[in-house]
Amino acid sequence: MSNKSEIIRKEKVVQSIVIADTFTDEFVPISDNIPHALLPILNKPLVDYTLEFLSLGGIEEVFLFCSVHSDEIKQHVDKCIKNGDGWTLTMKVNVTVSESCQSFGDCLRDLDARGLLRGEFVLLEPGVLSNVPLLSLLEKHSEIVKADKYAAMTLILQESGIGHRGRGLEDILLATDSLNRVLFYKNLGSRKTKKIEFPMDIFLENSSISILHNLKDSHISICSSSVLPLFSDNFDFQTKDDLIRGLLMNEEILEGTIYAHVLQGSLFGGAVSSWRMYQSLSQELMKKWIHPLTVTRNKNRVLKNNVVIGAGTTIPNSAKISRSILGASVSIGHNVTVEDSFIFSDTKIQDDVVITHSVIASNCTIKSDSKISLGSIIGTNTVLENGTVIENALVQSKQPDNGDEYVKLGNKAFELKVSSDDDGDSVLSTTSKKPYRLHITDIESDDEEDDDSDGFSDSEEELSYTQSPVPDDTKLFFSEVIDSLTRGFDDNLLCDNLILEINSSRYAYNVTVKEVNFNVVKAILSMSLREPIGVQYFSHLSRLLSYFSPVLKNYIRNEAAMLDCLQALEDVATSGESFKEKWVIAILQHMYNKDYLAEDIILEWYRNLDTDGKFVEHVKPFADWLQEAEEASSDDEDDDDSD
Amino acid sequence: MLDQENLSDVSNLVSDIKHKKIYNSFDVALKTEDLLEKLILQRQWKSARELMKLVKSRIKFIRDDLPTEATATNVMRHILKIIREEYESASKKKGEGQSLHQLVTSNSSDILDYSESLSSLRSSILDHLGEYKVEIESSCDNIAAQASEHIHMDEMIMTVGKSHTVEKFLKCAAKDRNFKVVVVEGAPFYYGHSLAASLAKSNIQTTVIPDSAVFAMMSRVNKVIIGTHTVLANGGLRASSGIHAVALAAKQFSVPVVVLSHMYKFTPLYVVSNNHEAFNICASPADVIPQSAGKILNDIEVYNPIFDYVPPELVTLFISHQGGNAPSYVYRLLSELYHQDDYDM
User: Fold this and answer.
1) ∠ at Cα A354 (A351, A355), nearest 5°?
2) Which one of A48, A120, A240, B215 is at 20 to 30 Å from B147 when CA atoms are compared?
3) Quick check: A266 contacting B, CB < 8 Å?
4) Where in the cell is it found (chain A) (predicted)?
């Protein structure tokens, strides 16, 4: 193994990008004071674990990308280098700052502009904790690239069982082919979707498909060098999910394929993307699931009941503490109960306080008889007065200045009200239907039952998304074509230029040839319907059709195109717009005479028409006439033969 | 505090071990010896005391960062002893020869303070280190050379997991003996599989059994031959998990348990507690129960310890390159290996 890694090393420096900001307000109000990367996990900043993991994984150069709180992160990294932390020996860490970035995608665009990365690299979303050997994954990815030069990304996913703590927020559903190429990707997120629709194509185009459902995102991905330019080329890509969805939808245009790799055995990957993941990963770290990343021994003490305390923290005999993590120098009063909670350093908890399923940031003072429960998050420096009772609340020490609603609990305690119409992260909103910020075992099981009853309505709205974009594009294309043609007709432009214009919009909207034929004819026909119905109508119609004859000639080239054209005619005629009685026949006549349509095609199409509809009546005279003509001509031929 | 910055050599070693660039104890021993050789050769030190301080700071560094790593600290301890010996002989040589009278009358107040600067010290230590290096390098072969004394015709040998020393020992015995080997696979890591494959390639009749079948097989086994991670001061073992069960089964059937151990695996430390952090490492529970097990993981605690403590009464014999020794003799070996003052620091 070491041999192989040496070969890689000789070729190039193994690089990694770590994005340090989440760009969500999940961690408000604590994230106002503590950058996400420095959030303490088992009393050690999150980024330390990430960097240690990268170093153990064999990475040699890291770009730590931050936009807010960049100074603090920089200071922290400098301090680590000065202290000679383990990873500093084998890895170079560059803190890259760009304050203008508003999303994950922006960061990658910025990095692309800087041109720092060469070749394949490891991309980490914020807050990754893992023990994956990255070198072997990089090797695997380059093998994939050898076989498929468009391979852009290998997603690293992890199996997770139903009912597991870390499950529920980041469930992913995948369909892959036999080479692990991703054909279908869906981030189920926190919504409990009961129905999922797969596009038919993936079943038609592939002989074997695996559908994997018990996965969660490790937030690690191995990327080819094409990933950064892909983000730059597509300004609307904000997240990794956008990229994946974009690539899957427009595979041919963007020229990128995605592969999936599911971690096996003791390999673990996950990221602190929400309070729930924070809770889950803290527990997993404590229980050694992420071995060799573990609790730092020299500063922490591991007590029974899954309690970890930092240096200088004292707990009196009368206090009951379980499944919690306390920072350094926390003082706990008498008869205090702490369950499933996280208390950061230097916080004072006075007597008889009850804290369950909550996070309390550093330097807070919780005065006697207070009760904090159900996923409350208390920001830095907050002081809660005697007997305060809060449930599922966000509390910060300063008065919010951005006009958000708040309730004053004390001089240094303001409860933030999260507006219920917040359509962002569903986990944040406080309506009782939504899950709490922390995983609460007893309540959670009730929730699941609730959701069973109303889950169906949720799934309905979800269904449309896989299909909707395609019709949208075609519709846009159609209106574009109509615009071009109207302008062309009014300004008397050359038809060749119009064809060019139509073709370019065809590529812009990624429409198939069939749809192009259909839509162009449909556009011309609809234009003809706009003219006022009067005596002059038919002369006007023939002028329009002959004007566009080069366009029609260009698109109606073969038999399939003829059928498309006829279908367009049918579509326009049955779309409900009023038209003159003989309009259909006039069109057919014109096209037949100009040789756009062959007579057997028309007849075949006619035979397949729905005999009940009104449309058939319109076509019938023409079809009859054609048939007669054919018989006549064949008679003629017979006559000729007999002569 | 000046030393703080200059610990880079040892922190490199620690990081190499953590990155698993070097993972078997033989490589660790050689690397450590190399490291100290360079230290002695290249660093500025005036007296043996200064040098010993440098070495001790490195031992402390490793002990803090890798509490379970014994080989590196053992090698360093032994080199401390070498430094002491060379200093003593060098300082004696300067004065007159040691007389019987001096030997008898010398008492503890005569403790050497190692502060004299002796010109010949550096070269004599380096010479001695050279010998020590050869000893480490040949240790494995020397142990293997004793194989035919311990393995006899048509015996059935049981071993657990994978140990390079055991592999070499068995292969060496197979040159002129015919015997069968039963390899216990050693769940959950299953290193036994690769050992069995390697033995079978050298035409040794090999059977792989699951850990659960150890007791059933034991009655037919003539000897249990195992490797170990560390030999503790009381003669007990820190060996890969599962070995304790094997040793207990062997005791039940009075099957001798032979432990192959290099000198650098003998440590002057005692086991404090079986599951103390400094004694054991817990690997990821995923080897025992998969991540995908789901809900049950919220409610259970899973431990996957890497080491077992095997008490000395279950061990019959240690074989090092010097020959066989009983567990009760380990204290004596230790006093030969290390200086009393360096046992604990």
Assistant:
1) 125
2) B215
3) yes
4) Cytoplasm, Cytosol
Whether residue B121 is found in the same domain as residue B170: no
pLDDT of B49 over the 90 cut? no
Q: Which CATH number is B23's domain given?
A: 1.20.120.420
Highest mean pLDDT among A6-10, A283-287, A288-292, B330-334 belongs to B330-334
Average pLDDT, chain A: 79
Same domain? For B217 and B303 the reply is yes
pLDDT at A426 over 50: no
Q: At what angle do helices B25-42 and B71-94 cross, to 10 degrees?
A: 40
Mean pLDDT along residues A418-443: 49
Distance from the A300 Cα atom to the nearest Cα atom in chain B, whole angstroms: 12
Q: Domain range holding B288?
A: 146-342
In a shared domain, residues B51 and B197: no
Q: Sorting pLDDT into bands at 50, 70 and 90, what band is B140?
A: very high
Query: What is the SS3 assignment for A15?
Result: strand
Domain co-membership, B176 together with B132? no
What is the arithmetic mean of pLDDT over A243-267? Answer: 85
- On the question of pLDDT at A637 being above 60, the answer is no
Q: Do B282 and A159 touch (CB under 8 A)?
A: no
- Retrieve residue A379's tokens: 């920001």
Tokens found for residue B186: 């050693």
Tokens encoding A566: 């006829």
Gap between the Cα atoms of B341 and B345, Å rounded: 8
Chain A residues 293-322 within an 8 A CB cutoff of chain B? 297-298
Helix (H), strand (E) at residue A335: none
Give the integer Cα–Cα distance in Å for A316 and A356: 18
What pLDDT score does A206 carry?
86
B284 shares a domain with B186: yes
Report the C-alpha gap between A305 and A321 in whole angstroms: 8
Of the partner residues A159, A163, A287, the one whose CB lies closest to the CB of residue B295: A163
Domains and CATH numbers, chain A: 2-274 (3.90.550.10), 297-416 (2.160.10.10), 470-642 (1.25.40.180)
- Phi, then psi, of A164 in degrees rounded to 5: -75, 150
Whole-Å CA distances, A135 to A14, A132, A154, A159, B273: 8, 9, 13, 21, 37
Q: Given CB atoms, is B1 within the 8 Å cutoff of chain A?
A: no
Q: Which residue of B has its CA nearest to A87?
A: B15
What tens digit of pLDDT does each residue of A525-583 get? Answer: 877 777 666 667 777 777 888 888 888 888 877 888 888 888 888 877 777 666 666 77
Give CA–CA dist A188/B224, Å, rounded: 54
Q: What gap in Å lies between CA B17 and CA B10, rounded to an integer?
A: 11
Burial class (CB in 10 A: 0-12, 13-18, 19+), A298: exposed
**Contact (Cβ atoms closer than 8 angstroms) between residue B40 and residue B51:** yes
Q: What is the 3-state secondary structure (H, E, C) of B160-180?
A: ECCCHHHHHHHHHHCCCCCCE
A58 neighbourhood in chain B, CB within 8 Å: 19
A158, A163, A291: residue with CB nearest B283: A291
B321 lies in the same domain as B173: yes
How many structural domains compose chain B?
2
Residues B249, B172, single domain; the answer is yes
Tell whether the torsion through CA atoms of B215, B219, B225 and B230 is positive or negative.
Answer: positive
Q: Which residues of A touch B6 (CB under 8 A)?
A: none
Cβ <8 Å between A90 and B15: yes
Q: Which of B89, B97, B73 is CA-nearest to residue B128?
A: B89
> Which CA distances in Å does A431 have to A343, A444, B7?
25, 15, 56
CATH number of residue B234's parent domain = 3.40.50.10470
In single-letter form, the type of residue at position A219 comes to H
Judgement on whether residues B122 and B224 belong to the same structural domain of the protein: no
